[in-house]
Amino acid sequence: MTRVPLHPDFRAIPLAHRGYHDRTRRRPENSASAFRAAIEAGYGIELDVQLTADGQAMVFHDETLDRMTSETGPTQGLTASKLSAIALVDSDDLIPTLSQVLDLVAGRVPLLIELKDVSGTLVETSGQLEAATANALQGYGGPVAVMSYNPAAIMVLSRLAPNIARGLTTERFEYHDWVALPQNVCDRLREIPDYDATLSSFISHRAADLAYPRVAELKAKGAAILCWTIRSPQAEANARQIADNITFEGYPAPLGA
Question: Do 201 and 6 meet the contact criterion of CB atoms below 8 Å apart?
Fold first, then answer.
């Protein structure tokens, strides 16, 4: 296995968080409409994938349907067919599969895919979501990268999709934000110890914590530094003092920054 470099577009083109979404304009997050709007505006796209009961990668962020659809209950345990029939709020869009989004984007803009952790532990994985993501990405020709909070997921992807750039979603892992994790796991992940073991080429770090010394250390070693989630021009200006690029929402990030 080798470290796959991040495509240059990931440093140059702002990434629209869950697509260029705006519910007032009928394009909710992680929807086809939000992805089309990002492409039309010239932005890259960041999105989330989860595993369906029948082993498909579905583009959806939350663990429950309540916030983004008119239905309720957990997303886990539902098939791709069931999820694909559920409408997203304030739109005519349905929950898309990763394959559908790949067909829509078709390599026109950089695509950053975050695998949601389904184990709740960030230390082990069944490998099913990784396999579904790798299968969907077979033959995809555009600039694409994968990331996860879970280093174990990226380790699996390094084997299943060795030619796709990979990275880690990172932050301070404060105990109060990660109450399901043992404190020793938070302490370990805070130092981003798996960057080299996973042969990552980037991190996507919480913007409020970009000054953390480990971020500078990785950048000095050649890591690309992305960040999340930027919601104003001032926050962007602050983040760009350290980060190579941003994931943003809620305002039109300038192109060619």
Answer: yes
